[in-house]
Design a protein that fits this description.
The protein is α/β, with parallel strands linked by helices. 35% of the residues lie in helices and 27% in strands. It has helices spanning 8-17, 33-43, 51-57, 70-79, 94-107, 121-127, 153-169, 278-291, 300-321; strands spanning 2-4, 27-29, 60-63, 83-87, 111-114, 135-141, 173-181, 190-197, 202-208, 215-222, 225-230, 235-242, 251-257, 263-271. The longest helix is centred in the C-terminal third of the chain and has 22 residues, at 300-321.
Length: 322
């Protein structure tokens, strides 16, 4: 394994890869020579002079470079038969991503987009539930960091939740209403989109990279129940309306008797989940796809669908900004 780009995410990948028994990290590359030297010294790995040297030495690569460079690097990796785990977004356009996927199919090389939230314990729990949300409220906010600013907040931040929503609802988006503005960079740094799905479900999604604090939450509203997922804490809160309240069965928020004489209660449950290392699980899924021929944890078509939606939102943002 070689890691290309050892900024924040690349360094996290490097730390995890060194712990996998099946993986040998042969080296790293970064365009910043001083950072490359520091990371190589800190983690005791080789510092490659260029990407060609990295591709020649490795069977697989993790690409955690600026988003605009992903497509070019993946193309070259696929040509040389290197399996690729690519930090989101896989590419900056759906057409580029589709081309990469087709090339991977033809060459028999594993190509996987790194949508880390798919491996979050809270989302994995949600996928096991029989939910039918009618409205969702999603917030993903974080303070400004001078990285990934070569793309808008849609491809940098919102893409996580677009992917989650499409995977959860399994339903196309019929229309979207978009608002967003640049604040600290030339591209939109905060955006809000209202998505209307073909099944009538509505999702209100807000993404920001200029907030005072971190927030990664999804709330689902459906008949007789409400779910709140905190992706940072990997926790779930469930509020349900039922017939009465039994002591010890959660926290009773309200209780009443209907005109028909039926006892009703609103009960809140804190669902305790074992916290998982989502990045570790993402890497394990990549290893299984290579070593065992396992199906991709995130199928290409789903990666492409999220990119198409992001592209659609960005096009509307351009119109919104005039």
């Amino acid at each position: 394994m070689a890691v290309l780009g050892v900024g924040h995410m690349g360094t996290l990948h490097l730390q995890k890869w060194r712990l996998h028994k099946e993986v040998q990290v042969v080296g790293i590359y970064d365009i910043d020579a001083e950072r490359l030297r520091r990371r190589a010294s800190e983690y005791g790995v080789a510092a490659f002079a260029d990407v060609e040297e990295a591709f020649a030495a490795a069977d697989a690569v993790t690409i955690a470079t600026p988003s605009q460079t992903h497509s070019l690097l993946v193309h070259r990796a696929l040509e040389l038969g290197c399996h690729c785990l690519v930090e989101k977004p896989l590419a900056t356009s759906a057409s580029e991503a589709a081309e990469l996927m087709e090339k991977a199919r033809k060459t028999g090389v594993v190509l996987m987009a790194g949508h880390i939230e798919r491996f979050n314990a809270a989302f994995r729990w949600l996928q096991q539930q029989a939910v039918q949300p009618r409205f969702l409220e999603v917030h993903r906010l974080h303070p400004f960091r001078p990285r990934s600013v070569d793309v808008s907040v849609v491809l940098d931040v919102m893409i996580h939740d677009l992917d989650l929503l499409l995977a959860l609802l399994q339903c196309p988006v019929e229309r979207c209403e978009v608002h967003g503005v640049p604040v600290l960079t030339p591209l939109p740094d905060i955006a809000n989109v209202r998505l209307v799905f073909a099944n009538g479900c509505v999702a209100n999604v807000t993404a920001s990279r200029i907030s005072a604090k971190f927030l990664r939450k999804m709330r689902l509203f459906q008949p007789s129940s409400y779910l709140a997922l905190d992706f940072a804490e990997q926790s779930v809160e469930q509020v349900v309306v039922g017939e009465g309240f039994d002591e010890g069965a959660g926290e009773c928020l309200a209780e009443w008797v209907t005109p028909e004489g039926v006892r009703r209660a609103i009960v809140r449950h804190q669902i305790r989940l074992p916290v998982v290392d989502a990045l570790w699980e993402e890497q394990r899924a990549f290893i299984r796809a290579i070593a065992e021929g396992a199906s991709l944890a995130i199928p290409h078509e789903q990666t492409l669908e999220a990119l198409r939606l992001a592209e659609r939102i960005e096009q509307q943002l351009q119109c919104f900004q005039g």
